[in-house]
Amino acid sequence: xxxxxxxxxxxxxxxxxxxxxxxxxxxxxxxxxxxxxxxxxxxxxxxxxxxxxxxxxxxxxxxxxxxxxxxxxxxxxxxxxxxxxxxxxxxxxxxxxxxxxxxxxxxxxxxxxxxxxxxxxxxxxxxxxxxxxxxxxxxxxxxxxxxxxxxxxxxxxxxxxxxxxxxxxxxxxxxxxxxxxxxxxxxxxxxxxxxxxxxxxxxxxxxxxxxxxxxxxxxxxxxxxxxxxxxxxxxxxxxxxxxxxxxxxxxxxxxxxxxxxxxxxxxxxxxxxxxxxxxxxxxxxxxxxxxxxxxxxxxxxxxxxxxxxxxxxxxxxxxxxxxxxxxxxxxxxxxxxxxxxxxxxxxxxxxxxxxxxxxxxxxxxxxxxxxxxxxxxxxxxxxxxxxxxxxxxxxxxxxxxxxxxxxxxxxxxxxxxxxxxxxxxxxxxxxxxxxxxxxxxxxxxxxxxxxxxxxxx
Length: 457
Hints:
Distance between the termini: 60 Å
Largest sheet: 3 strands, antiparallel
Mean pLDDT: 95
Number of strands: 22
Strand content: 5-15%
Strand order of the largest sheet: 3-4-5
Shape: globular
Low-confidence stretches: 1-9
Helix content: 40-55%
Radius of gyration: 23 Å
């Protein structure tokens, strides 16, 4: 065979390219190996929290990690932590723990209770958790419980406007507290819609869809929604507009209900809403992107505050295709985190002064870090996540689990470990570093409590 003539320069170039590929491969191998180690660490720390829940609060809604005592939201347990954390256990392949949690849920969880429960929280945590648990395990008992719960929550929608009351009694169907907010009236369709598709009962989809539409219909002339809404009269009680708690997941569900159900009404509401959010709420301070507060009627800036709950927005921007804006806002969120080594509940981004100094083990900034890494492949987001996880462990780990902070400056712990720490915060940390194949990101839509829902119908 005739020898190839590479010429005087081509062979060295070939070797250089080969070396570049080798270096790239080594770098990727090191990154993958480090990610594997991080996933193992996160799983181990999750088990520390879970095992202590099992030791000190098994069968109750939550563990109080400092006093090592159980806590129930309504005086009786609704198995909040086992239901909320079930899909995290499954995704981490903690099979024996997941089986034990499922057995507890199936044997001890009953919704026939004379209790007033908060419709929104029960929907995103319990209904969402039961549905994702069912889809991941195929356990029909979980779907039966979801169907029963959904049916007991339906009376919440029996207002003159179709907007749900804040509280509903699971046994009597009586309702109370008519003053709600867009997050609580508009963050129900992913769960009720999934329940509708899986049970073949249109009423679940129709009630939650109407509530979302009725919320949208009450936007102001400049296209914003406020913080307080009376479900009986349909009138606003608070004109403060923002992307924070009380509104946040309303916008999230406009986009995600389009993704999960292909509901074009949701897409149209999203397309009509989000440009106005950018117009009136986005704030450019010294080249940094933040989102503040404005009056829903006038659009006038009322507060320059941003916080832990707002930090979900980069994930939503990235998921909807706005990567450049998502990157900029995520950088601002991380700046907020690094201000005191862990994020405050609220900061004034104009002065960088902490307004509310608590930290509740919230997941939103981790969620956005995961989404941005998943959608861009940029290794900086894993580095960002590692920094946050190290801080999380350093300041929140206790002998019996993980504790919130009452003061992020002094790093004073408080006796609180809400179920979302296990359902969301640990899950998003884990998924950021998890092996390929742990979860098919393209085929799931996470509800606002990080429960992955799939279009299996």
